[in-house]
Structures are given as structure tokens and as C-alpha cells.
Design a protein that fits this description.
By secondary structure, the protein is an alpha/beta fold. The protein has a domain at 6-200 and 236-264 and 324-343: 3-Layer(aba) Sandwich (Rossmann fold), CATH 3.40.50. The protein is built from 11 helices and 13 strands. The chain has helices at 14-26, 43-51, 80-89, 106-130, 167-184, 213-220, 240-251, 271-281, 303-319, 328-334, 346-358; strands at 6-9, 31-35, 64-68, 92-95, 135-139, 151-153, 189-194, 196-198, 226-228, 237-239, 260-263, 289-291, 323-325. Strands 3-2-1-4-5-7-11 form a 7-stranded parallel sheet, with helices on both faces. Helix 2 links the parallel strand 2 (31-35) and strand 3 (64-68). Helix 1 (14-26) packs across helix 7 (240-251), helix 4 runs parallel beside helix 5 and helix 8 packs across helix 11. Bound molecules: NADP nicotinamide-adenine-dinucleotide phosphate. It comes from Tautonia plasticadhaerens.
Length: 364
């Protein structure tokens, strides 16, 4: 088991927190976490608060080293002391931080996702040249081709003709383009492209109801009742534990440098299955009417509903996935590592919705 220290951005987010928890519980590694201070709360305060419910807050100052910084600032805004510490210590760098809001503003999405990744690349080069860094892991998304057009995404390329539904997709595409450029110049990078990350495969548990959950909420709470989609269309969700296990397995292999991995469901569920789960397992949730997208006319609805329908447009490409994903690298390099592609069937959908209901995020 490797005991080399890690440098991680985005540790306060859904994926980052879960990864950090697993590294703390299953390795002896020291984790340098870049966390931005919020108000009067320093990085260390935030780390203590974050890990207290897991009983891991006692590790802050020990195996958890919280470093104040912001990915949008030059050099992440690190103090000279912290930069020297990272040069002396960090052997692997996980750039996870991003603005993940699908309806985020253009400027903010670009500042965090493109600007933050550009700074990550600059810092990685510095740590490689002057420190003991060995490699960088970049968290991209399976939606870098854009979700508006039918496309088979390969792991070894970035769609040169993307069709974006929102600024999240366009900014993550540009960020990955820059990472691939650096990789082509010899920077030792591995790229992960998860699809939509949802709750744990066994318990449905998730710490943040983000990305697609707010969309579910609009329907579960009866704010929207019409879904412009077809029953046989699929949406690609993956349980968070599959993503973290795959990341840990693939990052432990030396031969994954220079490669990209789709962390997706190979057999994604259909909208029809989702509605069946809702009707059968959660009969008290309001009914949802499927309308053929070609016949869907926003103007036939009330002013409020048409406004909300416009608001959810950035999400529709996720619920009506036109993308299919090549998983050659993921399949071959996870082989024999004890990590299987997830089942995202009726039972799984029931578990993730049940968890959101139990936590009173969704009413049923
Ligand atoms: N969740 C998904 O469905 C999904 C799917 C595909 C790809 N991904 C990718 O996986 C990564 C993690 O996603 P997630 O769902 O865990 O995201 P998340 O829950 O939204 O967390 C985002 C993280 O980024 C940090 N961050 C944002 N702006 C920052 C800044 N200026 N400086 C420092 N930190 C900043 C946040 O810190 P604060 O706490 O300070 O806000 C938080 O820790 C992202 O790169 C995302 O694009 C996620």
C-alpha cells in the first residue's frame, strides 16, 4: 500500500469528500487538501466541520493538512510556505474542484473550470520540476462532447465538433482540451470522465443532492408534471462508490498515465424504468406525463411552468442521453482489480430515490 502524500482540490465536494474518506480509512497516506476559506472559516475549520460527522476531524493537523487556497487565483493563491510544503511532499495531485452547476453562469463556469484547470496545470508543472510530484489526475466529465447531439465518445479523443447544452459542458470541454494539450507535451496526466454521479450502490447514500437531484425534486414535489422525453431514452448515472473505487484502482497503476477513462454505466437505465420505479415504489409522488419532445410546446403551459421548463433545459440532455461511451480503457485496466461496472437497474434507482426520500430531500 502506497504511503505517498496526496494533494487534492475539491475535497469539500461530493466526490472529493468520499475519496478523501476512503483514502483516510484504507491507507496511511497524508492528504494535503486545498480548501477555500469561507467568511471567517479557515480551510482547517472547514475540514474539521466536514470530517466531524465521519469521526475523522481528529485527523485535521495530522494526516489531513488543510491548505488555504482558491483554484481561480494565480498559483491557487498559495502562500510561499504552503507551495514549498507541496513541493517537498506531494507525490500525486488530484484536481477535482469545479463549478458543477448545470445552470451556472458563463463567466463563473469558465473562471473556475477553465481558469482553475489552467492553474492546476501550471502548479503541476512546478511541482514536477521543483518538487517530488509524479503525476496529475484530472476530473473531467463524460459530457465533454456536449449533450445536445448524438455522438459516440471515444476515450482517446475529445470531440472536435461539440454541441453544448450549458456552460458547464463547454467549460469542462475547454479545460480537458488544455489538459490533453499538456499531456501531449509530456505531462503525466490521467483523465477521469464520470457520467452523472448519484448515491451509493448499496445504500443510495450521497452527501450532496447535486447535479441531477434538483431536477428529480421539481417533479417529485409536483412543480413540474410534464417531461419532454421518450420512455426508451436512457440517462447515464453511476453510483458514487463505483467512481471512487475505479479512481483508486486506476490511480494505483503506473500504466494509466496518459490515458482517459469513461466511468459510466455500460447499460444505463431508461426513462421508462425511472417512471415505473416512481409509480410502483413511490405511488404518492405526483404523476409525470411524458410528451414527445418533437411535439412539446412550451407556450401551451402557464407562464410559470414555461419559465421553469426553460430553466431545466440545460438538464434535459442528461435525462435524454444522446451520447454513448466507449469504455475500452476502463474495462481493460479495471480487469482483475476487483471493480465491476455498476448495475443501474430498477432496484438501484429505487435505492437512490428511497435515500433521498428518507433524508426528506424528496417528498413521497
Ligand atoms: N457529480 C457528478 O455528477 C459529476 C459527474 C461528472 C464529472 N464530475 C466532476 O467531478 C468533480 C467533482 O464533482 P462533485 O460533484 O464532487 O462537485 P461538487 O460537489 O460541486 O464540489 C465541487 C468542489 O469544488 C470546489 N471548488 C469550487 N470552486 C473552487 C475554487 N474557486 N477554489 C477551490 N475549490 C473550489 C468546491 O469547494 P467549496 O466547498 O469551497 O465550494 C467543492 O469542493 C468535478 O470536476 C466535476 O466536474 C462530477
Amino acid at each position: 500500500m502506497s504511503d505517498r502524500p496526496l494533494f487534492v482540490t475539491g475535497a469539500t465536494g461530493a466526490l472529493g469528500r468520499r475519496l478523501v474518506q476512503e483514502w483516510l480509512e484504507t491507507t496511511d497516506r497524508t492528504l494535503y487538501l486545498l480548501i477555500r476559506h469561507k467568511g471567517l472559516h479557515s480551510a482547517a475549520d472547514r475540514a474539521r466541520k466536514l470530517f466531524a460527522p465521519l469521526g475523522l476531524d481528529g485527523m485535521v493537523g495530522g494526516r489531513i493538512r488543510a491548505i488555504d487556497g482558491d483554484v481561480t487565483k494565480p498559483g491557487f493563491g498559495l502562500s510561499a510556505g504552503d507551495r514549498d510544503l507541496l513541493r517537498a511532499e506531494a507525490s500525486e495531485f488530484f484536481h477535482i474542484a469545479a463549478l458543477t452547476e448545470l445552470n451556472g453562469r458563463k463567466e463563473e463556469s469558465e473562471r473556475i473550470n477553465i481558469g482553475g484547470t489552467t492553474e492546476a496545470l501550471r502548479l503541476a508543472r512546478d511541482l514536477l520540476e521543483r518538487g517530488r510530484l509524479e503525476r496529475l489526475f484530472h476530473f473531467s466529465t463524460a459530457y465533454v462532447p456536449g449533450s445536445l447531439r448524438t455522438y459516440h465518445a471515444r476515450e482517446d479523443e475529445l470531440n472536435p465538433d461539440p454541441a453544448f447544452a450549458n456552460h458547464y459542458e463547454s467549460s469542462k470541454h475547454e479545460a480537458e482540451r488544455r489538459v490533453r494539450g499538456a499531456m501531449a507535451e509530456g505531462l503525466p496526466v490521467t483523465i477521469f470522465r464520470p457520467s452523472i454521479v448519484v448515491g451509493d450502490s448499496r445504500s443510495g447514500e450521497v452527501t450532496e443532492f447535486n447535479v441531477v437531484y434538483p431536477f428529480f425534486k421539481l417533479y417529485a414535489h409536483g412543480i413540474l408534471d410534464v417531461l419532454p422525453a421518450r420512455a426508451d431514452e436512457t440517462f447515464n448515472v453511476v453510483p458514487i462508490d463505483f467512481v471512487t473505487q475505479a479512481v483508486r484502482a486506476l490511480s494505483s497503476r503506473a500504466d494509466t498515465v496518459g490515458k482517459t477513462y469513461h466511468l459510466v454505466a455500460e447499460r444505463p437505465p431508461t426513462i421508462g424504468t425511472l417512471l415505473k420505479v416512481k409509480d410502483t415504489e413511490f405511488p404518492r409522488m405526483p404523476p409525470i406525463k411524458l410528451v414527445d419532445p418533437d411535439e412539446f410546446d412550451q407556450t401551451r403551459h402557464s407562464f410559470l411552468v414555461s419559465r421553469i421548463q426553460r430553466y431545466i433545459e440545460p438538464y434535459l440532455g442528461y435525462l435524454r442521453c444522446k451520447l454513448t461511451f466507449d469504455t475500452t480503457n476502463t474495462r481493460s485496466d479495471l480487469d482483475g482489480m476487483g471493480v465491476e461496472f455498476p448495475e443501474t437497474d430498477y432496484e438501484f434507482l429505487t435505492r437512490i430515490l428511497q435515500y433521498a426520500v428518507d433524508k426528506k430531500y424528496l417528498i413521497a
